[in-house]
Write a structure and sequence with these properties.
Blueprint (H helix, E strand, L loop, with lengths): L6 E6 L6 E7 L4 E6 L4 E6 L5 E5 L4 E7 L2 E9 L2 E5 L6 E6 L7 E8 L5 E7 L2 H4 L5 E6 L5 E8 L2 E6 L5 E6 L4 E8 L4 E2 L4 E4 L5 E6 L5 E5 L4 E5 L5 E6 L5 E7 L5 E6 L6 H6 L6 E5 L15
Antiparallel strand pairs: 1-25, 2-3, 3-4, 4-5, 6-7, 7-8, 8-9, 10-11, 11-12, 12-13, 14-15, 15-16, 16-17, 16-18, 19-20, 20-21, 21-22, 23-24, 24-25
Amino acid sequence: MPSPKAHLIETIDVACTLGESILFRQSDSTVWWTDDDTQKLYRLGWPGLSLQIFSLPERAGSIALVEGSEDWILVAFETGFALFAPASGDVRWLYILHTLGVGLRMNDGRVEPAGRFVASSMAETKTLREGPPLGAFYRLDPNGETYQVLGDLIVPNGLCWSPSGDTIYYADSITRSIYRANYNLQTGTASEPNLIKKIETGPPDGAVTDQYGRIWSALWGAGCIGVLDADLNMLNEVNIDAPNPTCPCFGGEDSALLFVTSARKGMTLDETTTHPTAGSVFIFETGTTGTATKAAEVTV
């Protein structure tokens, strides 16, 4: 098993306020991510580095590729699930989560190995974050039906699966906890967590697994990607020249590259002067094999 190390090969200076939900599409070798606060969607050609920016109708907590289509992106907008066509700006709403109340919005998400998009709701306001945990993960089935998979979280993040798909990992950034649970790929359901680990380095944000079952977790405020084993023991930390990394993904021809978004949100002028590349996308060679971005099975 190769060592979980990485070295920086490229920095894409886009100064995102809150870069998030980065994906790599193999069919056209493009990288996709959002700037959540500015309602922007980015598309980067790799390795040519051609960059396009698209406006979104709402903040996007997370995005997913669409199986068999390069024209549409599946989005967990702040109020629900929709298909979005970057070229035209068209939106096709699939499911609006009416259960989301004031102070709740959609957040982190990822496509599970069976092809269903799972995304979370999170508490935004201080009042809600201090009350009963109202955040949850929702599964969008190919027929457009939506079901709650996990609940009792405040700011759900870090959703990813083991290579076999029978284990789900997720985090609550507020409590700095990463959870491990059994996952049934046939039904799209999760058990109660069988392991919970507090991360002292920094609040866990987005995460992805590699082919060896290791979890690569963006640690907000710590300026690094923490690499954990399947039992959530820290193996290594990949340093990033930005205090707030937000989401990693593997990509490239052999899924050996690591792409990482970051944020400038909440940073002072002195902090952004010290870390001018905060908000950039960082690209690393890892020497390992990651899990390729899975596309969602949804009718377009």
